[in-house]
Amino acid sequence: MNGGYNLCIIKPNKGTVSETFVAEHINRLAGNKKVLYGGSFPVYDEHDQYLIRSKSGLLSYIIQKRIFKRKNIGVRNRALANYFKREKIDVVFAEYGTVGSMVTQACKMAGVPLVVNFHGADIYQQDAYREYLDYYKTMFNYASAIVAVSDDMVDTLIKAGAPADKVYWNPCGVDTEKFTPVNIAVSKPHFLSIGRFVPKKSPESVLEAFAIVAKAIPEAHLWMVGVGPLYEQAQKIIAQLGLQDRVTLTGALSSDEIIELFKQTRCFVQHSITAPDGDKEGTPVTILEAGASGIPIVSTLHGGIKQAVINNQTGILVDEHDIEAMAAGMIKLGNDVKLAETFGKAGREHMVNIYDIKKRIAVLDDIIQKSLK
Predict the structure, then answer these.
(1) DSSP helix/strand/coil, 26
(2) Cβ-contact 235, 249 below 8 angstroms
(3) What is the DSSP letter of 179?
(4) Lowest-confidence range among 56-70, 76-90, 137-151, 191-205?
(5) Residue 10 near residue 93 (C-beta atoms within 8 A)
(6) Is 193 helix (H, G, I), strand (E, B) or coil?
(7) pTM of the full structure
(8) To the nearest 5 percent, what fractions of the chain are helix, strand and coil?
(9) What's the average model confidence in pLDDT over 343-368?
(10) What pLDDT was estimated at residue 71?
(11) CA–CA dist 356, 271 (Å, integer)
(12) What is the pLDDT averaged over residues 247-263?
């Protein structure tokens, strides 16, 4: 159902496989929607046309951005403000704090309210935080609402200067009608990890824990889904640990292919950590998808995972970098199919009650519509 207002969603990337939450917002939020993209500041409109219409304006923008490395570029702000006015935009919803901070000036110029959704690296990654902090302060002052996807992120944003009465907790959601319970009772001790091969996902920790599991459970097998800068390192670790026949790296997979993998999985594993550059998780969508599928989870006491997984009820949570504890949790569920089934059922209920995508979108719709008042 469309609301009677014009909503402009601004996102950094035209399309990214790992940003399913952005696609869900675009597909499900109310309002008559326009979608802009092009980095921390939108360069393109919904027709893939430049927002800056004139050649001289584009040239000025390119010189200021690429040569002088400026962020606050007048010709760009004016082009976006003019777009808001031309399209009669009533409210702007910015995906990521970096995007929100960069479009604040154009929103001011057009007199349009701004709602900003933070997701993770935009507030935790140290270099990005330092680079954008002054712009964040201006945005915190102007924005009608600031959305965080975990309790940890709420606290971090308030400490960074966001007014507490503007900050809302609203995690990413999961389609519980698409991700439905699998039959854990017939599963083998198969483990599944999904996520980009990046430092905060710590794929090497998953492999080191599984090496312990593999010795304890002869039938154990690990599937790892995803790509990223640490992919080749993971391949080397697999060879060093002699796990070539026990670990399958699938590369990137579609959601339908992941659903098929869920059907043969007893336990989902993810060893999220605070990366050396400070980057942390918000609320990982793959953990929500596994939970909605009735699969128990072994993960870390990290970010929004602490809320998405109820320790010793829907899964097992361990301290970051505690490889032995993670392996012990995996062995416990790998050897006890009844416990895995019990945890999985409780996890499914938790997802339906709290994280169902329709409920999370309804909350976000309410936040956006309040900004109109």
Answers:
(1) helix
(2) yes
(3) S
(4) 56-70
(5) yes
(6) strand
(7) 0.91
(8) 50, 15, 35
(9) 98
(10) 86
(11) 24
(12) 96
Contact 125, 278 (CB under 8 A): yes
In a 3-state reduction of DSSP, which class is residue 191? Answer: strand
Q: Say which range, 45-54, 133-142, 340-349, has the weakest mean pLDDT.
A: 45-54
CB-count burial class (<10 Å; 0-12, 13-18, 19+) for 151: middle
Give me 240's structure tokens: 């060093």
Task: Using pLDDT thresholds of 50, 70 and 90, give the confidence band for residue 4.
Answer: confident
What is each CA distance from 215 to 209, 218, 268, 332, 342, in whole angstroms?
10, 7, 19, 14, 25
Distances (CA, A) of 369 to 8, 24, 85, 120, 274: 13, 18, 19, 24, 34
> DSSP character for 161?
T
Give the C-alpha separation, 297 to 326, whole Å. 11
Does pLDDT of 1 surpass 80?
Answer: no
Amino acid identity of residue 13, one-letter, is N
Q: Which of 140, 142, 144 is nearest to 156 (CA)?
A: 140
Q: What interhelical angle do 231-240 and 203-216 show, nearest 10?
A: 30
Does pLDDT of 17 surpass 60?
A: no
The Cβ of residue 122 has, within 10 Å, a number of other Cβ atoms equal to 25
Q: How far is CA 189 from CA 185, 291, 367, in A?
A: 11, 17, 43
How far is residue 212's CA from residue 244's CA, in Å, rounded to a whole number?
15
Range list of H helices, the chain:
20-28, 55-62, 74-86, 97-110, 121-124, 126-142, 151-160, 203-216, 231-240, 255-262, 285-292, 305-308, 323-335, 337-350, 357-371
CA distance 266 to 262: 8
Contact 50, 88 (CB under 8 A): no
Dihedral angle computed from the Cα positions of residues 325, 197, 118 and 29, in that order, rounded to the nearest 10 degrees: -110
